[in-house]
């Protein structure tokens, strides 16, 4: 008979099934212990076992934070990594974490955002054509309201009003994108 997945055991545990919870902890403990020993070997055997216990306690306290539609292993590995780092911090040791483990949260290098122009074009493209043209002319190309008005056959005041309305529309679009 096949063993149930860690995810199915965790789902059952989160619904109050104590047997599933005990089976899950029994299954993950050796894996957690291996990760802790591999990453925190310089802490020593007793400290590593303390970290394992910290991980198991965190799993118990934070298990509701795991998204049931996500795999359990990445969540479990993240909890374990964080507890190993905490142990190094508490002992004042230097922590070495592979860049691959944190690449997604590292800040982008200084300079232009390579996606900025594409994102701006996409959002501005959602405006009505005339408003989009005015925003591009003044906001991106650096034209004055008078220059944009002359080119578009509008008065400077009409361009300013249209620009103001376009900015309000962009603000509404932004709010919808954030929600």
TrEMBL record:
GO terms of biological process kind: DNA-templated transcription initiation
Domain RNA polymerase sigma-70 region: 29-92
Keyword Transcription regulation: yes
RNA polymerase sigma factor 70 region 4 type domain: residues covered: 120-170
InterPro entries assigned: RNA_pol_sigma-70-like, RNA_pol_sigma-70_dom, RNA_pol_sigma70_r2, RNA_pol_sigma70_r4_t2, RNA_pol_sigma_r2, RNA_pol_sigma_r3/r4-like, WH-like_DNA-bd_sf
SUPFAM superfamilies hit by this protein: Sigma2 domain of RNA polymerase sigma factors, Sigma3 and sigma4 domains of RNA polymerase sigma factors
UniProt keyword list: DNA-binding, Sigma factor, Transcription, Transcription regulation
Record keyword Transcription regulation present: yes
A molecular-function term among this protein's GO annotations: DNA binding
Any Pfam family hit: Sigma70_r4_2
UniProt cross-references to NCBIfam families, sorted A to Z: PRK12512.1, sigma70-ECF
Family listed: Belongs to the sigma-70 factor family. ECF subfamily.
Protein's name in the database: SigD protein
